[in-house]
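FW: tagging you since you asked about this chain on Friday. Here's the raw sequence from the shared folder, copied in full. Didn't touch anything.
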Amino acid sequence: MNGYGQLGDGTTVESSTPVQVINLSKVYKIVGGFYHTVALKTDGTLWAWGANDKGQLGNGTTTESPIPLEVIFPTVTAPTVETAPVTSITINSAALNGTITPNGSDTKWYFEYGLTTNYEASTVSQIIHSGNAATTVSENLTNLMPNTNYHFRLAAENSEGRTNGDDQTFMTEALPSSMMGKAVIIAGSTSAGSPSDTLYPYSNKLSQQMYRLLTQRGFTDADILYMNPLPPDINEDGNPDSHLQDYNLLQPETDLEDAFSKAASELSEGSQFILYIHGHANINNIRITRDYTLPATGLKSLLDKIPSSVQQVIILDTCYSGSFLDELAGSPNRIVMTSTDGITSAWNVEVANFSEKLIRQLRSGYTLKQAFDSATDIIKSNETLFGNQSPQLDDNGDGVYNAVDGIQSSITYIVRDGVQAANPPVITGVHPVMYIPEGKPDGILWLKTSPSGENQIKMVKAVLMPPDFTSAEYSGDETRFSETVLELKYNGALDQYEVRYENFRQKGTWRIAYQVQGLDGQWSDIKFGEVNAGGVSGELSVAVGLNQTQYNVLDTLLFDVTMNGSESSDLYVALIFPQGYFFTFAYPLIPGSLGELIPYQSNISINGQKTFNILELPLPKELGKGVYTACAVAASVGSDPWAVENWFCYDCKSFELK
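HL: got it, structure written out here
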């Protein structure tokens, strides 16, 4: 057969004997087809002749050839990409468009987008098969922030490389102020306002900071459901803002149901729901009040009330808060941040804490991911303060914190984007390392700020950490979250803030954490100073002694205090009731007024060890059931006992009346 020239001799005449193929030499291999023939030469080129109605000769035509023609291989190059303008922009979505030419090879394409030209996120990649025709592509983005400027570009890659389209931007539509979103803020407490709940002052303070953050970023009071046993003091003028307290948590379960139902009913697509909780917790349980615990399953049920089209930002600052991640999984619109993992019990709030840093960074216009990373850095950089505390983030709904988390939170702000607050004050200088000789326990602490001067700074504080300072291991209501805080005052002559402290009695290196608050309530970053103290001999210790840890009515309570050392002091003893109020006693068993601090004995001088028998009495029926706490404090003679910095030492023991 040679009807199509498949013999390669330049004719279409059949031949029963071999013929010479025209213009072909140095052939390595030859293969005959039914109507065409292909040969591979030693130089790697491929030649074909014969029928070509299906383009089988590979020369770009469909014309048959009775002589060999070289097969033309298409040239493959990186794809050609063009980013097109956005269409269909709404408050939380936009359609990205572009054109891709594959240039001869299968090509993978996707859009990159984000708040900057770093393009913090990308769409799922798709494939265009090989060819040279331009193809229009489109991808619809959802879960965007309202009134936010986004960068985007189209990207494509094949075997020859990657091509990026030009950067373009678009602005999502703004929400009306009434549609920005809703927030629930919860300050949990086991005994609000009582010395027995040492964590509550921080829960109260941080919940107020979160309230101020939300209003500063556009929320109104009507958008915030504030849940706290005590009314807030948002403007910090010393007067409670009772009209801002939406729920006092007297009926916590009912209050929570009502708050989440109200928020859910007033949320709309594109708005944002924010939940912030600070307080005591155990694994998978948050203690909202002394008598009510919110389990992880209960929190999930509350959050399930929120419409699925609404973005949720959940911030849990409690012990073991990471244990909630798995239960809160499954919602693609839910970003969960926790102050620690699910098994860590070490807490410390004396100097700084997760919420304080997180709120400060969000206030300065950081994204959720940026603020989370900054707060995590504070925790991770100082094991002495924070032990093994390990903040967690889940923003892809899989219930765990791992390397794939961070995409959604890196393009999400609280309420809206952009810096919405003035820059915080800055600490420009701190005293060098101070050396205090033995026997002289006082020194002047100072620092310089910008801005500086009268009426330029709201507060300058110093938090003291003595040489034996360790993180407070979480142990429920009895956890020690106390701190020694000094306020520095402005010295115009030296243009610095300073305070004299007279109780550097313990020998060793003291660390001092300094922070400055601006007039708008925003705090500076923390800076540290050091004091090397020679110490003062004759250190005191006190120990409370009880004859039982549980009592029944009419059982005899024995309450003793043992002092050890060689230092003069004022001794205070107190009995704290389950409701949070307390009585102090003067010798010999003379009670003070409710909440009054009177010394048991003043100017006690001991040399060695001495035990004082404070109470020995049957417990009357009128006391009522509950957990009571007996405390003793040794303070410097004649000093203000309300000021913790005047305390030499203290000890407390709890007991239950059944």
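FW: The mean pLDDT is 88.
HL: agreed, and The first strand starts at residue 27 and ends at 32.
FW: great, closing this out.
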